[in-house]
Amino acid sequence: MNQTERRKYLIRWLLDENPEYRDAEIPADEGGQRRLLRGLMNVRMPMEIDDDFLSVQDAYLKEEAAEKGIVSLDDISFNEEGLAIWKGDITRLAVDAIVNAANSGMTGCYVPNHTCIDNCIHTFAGVQLRLDCARIMDKQGYDEPTGQAKITKAYNLPCKYVLHTVGPIVQGKLTKEHERLLASCYNSCLDLAAENNLTSVAFCCISTGVFMFPNERAAEIAVDTVREYLMKGTSVNKVIFNVFKDIDEEIYHDRETIEEL
Question: Which residues contact 192 (CB under 8 A, 6 or more apart)?
Answer without folding.
Answer: 149, 150, 151, 163
